[in-house]
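Subject: design request, 196 residues
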């Protein structure tokens, strides 16, 4: 990562943190982009170079999968479940010190339609990224498996984030990996007869 891109990420993060803190303190309806910029120590113009509106600043920068981990996942010849664990650990470990921020954003999204839509859009984007990686990795398999598996992985990871943000688990990475491991168990349920 270049020094310029690192500074850009730091500024985006600073604006994001300021937006969350002010939204929590003052309420989302009282929040302005000018107040966020002031709190983050940037000009309003700089704010708009990073985010188009206050809800986007609260949602924060895209939480894409790390490029090196993504490339390794696609190229690996190991067991899919093991390689998923490595990828998800690389992805989520970047956020383990941000539990309060995640919890606040999730709580705010419960009552703000624009923020909720941004959160859903981010989930769809991660689903698309996961599907693309799976399509490359599983190119010799039925193409329908990639989007189905991607949906299950995103859902399992999302559930881990929700439980962790709510304080029901202290280890986000371990919970996400455990949830992903349950995908096979869930698949097994489809072929089992109901227990009387």
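Subject: RE: design request

Done. Sequence follows.
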């Amino acid at each position: 990562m270049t020094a310029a891109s690192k500074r850009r990420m730091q500024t985006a993060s600073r604006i994001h943190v300021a937006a969350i803190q002010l939204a929590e303190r003052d309420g989302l309806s009282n929040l302005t982009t000018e107040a966020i910029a002031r709190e983050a120590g940037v000009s309003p113009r700089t704010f708009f170079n990073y985010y188009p509106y206050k809800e986007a600043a609260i949602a924060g920068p895209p939480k894409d999968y790390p490029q090196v981990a993504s490339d390794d996942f696609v190229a690996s010849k190991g067991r899919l479940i093991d390689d998923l664990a490595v990828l998800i650990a690389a992805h989520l470990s970047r956020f383990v010190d941000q539990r309060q921020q995640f919890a606040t954003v999730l709580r705010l999204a419960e009552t703000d339609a624009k923020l909720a839509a941004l959160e859903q859009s981010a989930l769809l984007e991660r689903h698309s990224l996961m599907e693309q990686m799976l399509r490359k990795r599983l190119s010799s398999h039925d193409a329908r498996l990639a989007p189905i598996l991607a949906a299950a992985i995103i859902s399992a990871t999302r559930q881990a984030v929700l439980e962790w943000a709510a304080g029901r688990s202290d280890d986000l990475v371990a919970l996400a990996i455990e949830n992903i491991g349950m995908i096979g168990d869930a698949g097994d349920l489809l072929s089992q007869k109901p227990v009387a």
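The chain has ten helices and no strands.
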